[in-house]
Specification:
Blueprint (H helix, E strand, L loop, with lengths): L14 H25 L3 H25 L6 H10 L13 H11 L9 H17 L5 H26 L4
């Protein structure tokens, strides 16, 4: 069986900009891979990758918000630090109530009220069943996961951009 491999080509950048360019483009490359995996019949992998993209965008947005003087309010600093300590990898799944609270504290956005939220919860649950139990996935489930991840990423990006402009 022949497999297609996908790589991300990062635009030219100076040495000091390279890490930032790669970090910004990483979720885009992964999201393209989710679509490619779905098209190649690797539906379970597509779901895992799509959900990982959601977490990457949230991690990047929260990281930028917590460092931005205009948005890292001292009132919320302890909440955000408790939910997502800087000194360790975190669970940036917005199904995590602590992460959701940190997001709301930093942005004022209530993700659970977004139109995509019920499907996001469904897809996150499906991702966990695949990753932790080896559950299979159908093409329809993979397509739904990609569609939901796209809505989620668009939402997070819009909020972060509204608050930070090009500083993220």
């Amino acid at each position: 069986m022949s497999r297609t491999h996908y790589i991300n080509v990062v635009d030219s950048a100076t040495v000091s900009d390279t890490a930032e360019v790669e970090r910004i483009r990483a979720h885009v490359s992964l999201f393209e891979n989710a679509r490619a995996h779905c098209g190649d019949g690797r539906h379970a992998e597509a779901i895992i990758i799509a959900q990982t993209c959601c977490e990457m965008v949230v991690a990047r947005a929260i990281g930028a918000l917590r460092e931005d003087p205009g948005h890292a309010s001292a009132d919320y600093a302890s909440l955000v630090e408790a939910a997502l300590p800087k000194n360790r990898d975190n669970n940036y799944s917005m199904r995590n109530p602590l992460a959701q609270g940190a997001w709301r504290a930093l942005t004022g956005d209530v993700l659970a009220s977004a139109s995509f939220w019920p499907e996001y919860e469904t897809q996150s649950t499906k991702r966990n069943k695949i990753a932790h139990r080896g559950e299979p996935a159908s093409k329809e489930e993979a397509e739904a996961s990609i569609k939901t991840a796209d809505a989620f990423i668009t939402h997070i990006t819009a909020i972060a951009t509204a608050l930070l402009g090009d500083r993220w």
